[in-house]
Amino acid sequence: MSKWLNPRSAFGITLIAVALLGLPFVAAMGGQAWVRILDFAILYVFLALGLNIVVGYAGLLDLGYIAFYAVGAYTWALLASPHFGLHLPIWAILPIGAALACLAGVLLGSPTLKLRGDYLAIVTLGFGEIVRIFMNNLNAPVNITNGPQGITLIDPVAFGDFKFSGNTQLFGLTLSGPMKYYYLLVALAILVVIINLRLQNSRIGRAWQAIREDEIAAKAVGINTRNIKLLAFAMGASFGGIAGGVFAAMQGFVSPESFSLMESIMILAMVVLGGMGHIPGVILGAVLLSILPEALRYGVGPIQMALFGKMMVDPESLRMLVFGLALVLVMRFKPAGLWPSPERKRELSEKRTEGKA
Amino acid sequence: MSTNLPTPLLEAKAVAKHFGGVKALRDVSLTIRHGEIYGLIGPNGAGKTTFFNCMTGLYVPDGGGFTFDGAPLVADAPQHAAARGIARTFQNIRLFGNMTALENVMVGRHVRTRAGVIGAMLNTSATRAEEAAIRQRAIDLLHYVRIEDRAGDLAKNLSYGDQRRLEIARALATEPKLLCLDEPAAGMNATETEELRELIEGIRDDGTTILLIEHDVKLVMGLCDRVAVLDYGALVIEDVPAVVQKDQRVIEAYLGA
Fold this sequence. Notes:
- The complex is a heterodimer of chains A (357) and B (257).
- With 357 residues, chain A is mostly helical.
- Chain A has helices at residues 7-29, 32-57, 66-79, 90-109, 117-137, 177-200, 203-213, 215-220, 225-251, 261-274, 279-308, 315-333, 347-356; strands at 80-81, 86-87, 158-159, 162-163, 168-170, 173-175.
- Chain A is globular, with a radius of gyration of 21 Å.
- Chain B has 257 residues and is α/β, with parallel strands linked by helices.
- In chain B, β9 (226-231) and β10 (234-239) form a beta hairpin.
């Protein structure tokens, strides 16, 4: 805790805070589209850190993570839209969404407790698809999800009269909708970073890591591996549910196609590419993988027009090419991820042991 | 069995286990008393580790059962055995390789501590106090097994002897009444074995009963208060080392008759 009082850390934190505060104004110079891209980058940071608990800490390979995001998004969509005529406030919907996603996490977790590695990946993948297909087909005989058309006109996030959509004048600055969402998402992301950090160095966090390292030894020292694994699924799923709720509110529209297998793989790739179990690495992975494709989209088209006078390659297909290449290169040259946790010659061995012993 | 100690710490009654047609354990009955070092020996494949695994809940015995510390031991899950006070090490060392030595021992405190997710997320004062106590106890235990200078190293980077010690420290962190060591001297040279003997005696003198499975007959005979011999899954004899050493059936089991 004394780390916080260190003037150099304080300076660093101030610098990061200023950068985070100013970033949307810089992005807004390039148009609101860029602010929205930032929003999604932060949303993916949130999602990736949620998945990091399951994959990074507990070592459970989850390929269906997007299902929890979908549960959260549809919860918001159904409880705050004209579809059912319900307009519940955020402090009611977000916890309900998180709780339902948590329940989904436990439902997925309990039958898969004895599975590991590839087998677990296959089951979770199937689960993700089941949820998506449910959303796609739950429009008959009773119309719950409105099927493939999705749900529209979803309420934005609002605290009382303060709505996150549309422009607001504040201290002489004009804040657009995406900019306000940006600050909300940053706040949520900081919260999830703190929770990740605290869990990492806690009794439960160590139990997760122990299960990841050797399940039999973990049982032998008295860890109830069933409950601890379920807890990892439940925690990760809850974060997915919250992210989904904010996503639905921000977009104003949800449909099943937002929750494809590709999205699950993207989030997993963010965690793995950045550095499993290492928070700064996961953040880096999420930011890179969410911003680069957009940069490509906006960059490649004009460049091609300038060079050849016509579109040679569709940016969308180029995106998958670059993405695949990046994955291959990272796995070849930095198999532990772009920013893995340092081979932990931890400071605690020298400093803290002497300080406290 | 002349000593009139109160109830034994562990009592195995007719424990049986078979894998398909192979009878790994045939009605093994034995008793371990409070405060002794109890040796379990036998040729390869005699059923020593199977007995161990039945006792610590990794296997469910097909017959018989255990009484531990005055109450039946429901051998359904390893974590329950640990909670009751049975800790073990593994024949092929099983540490948490990518965690530091200190963290390995801290994991051992899991079963004796309570902090949950909410406490950790809110970083409550109770959680912080417990965390500090866990850390301090883990540091003390690393001192106890004399590897405190490796506290910050990843377990997988420790030398073989230190890994054995770390595994014992992790087992001790669960505050066991009975510490089960599965071939702790395997692969050790004479000096390391001697150091291990001192460590085991120290643990016993500090009040923990020890069950020792070992191939090194010299170590077992010198260290143990009583010894049981298994052969083909059946108990051959259970007595003090001096008697066991002279028993004709034991000699036959080891030399092959």
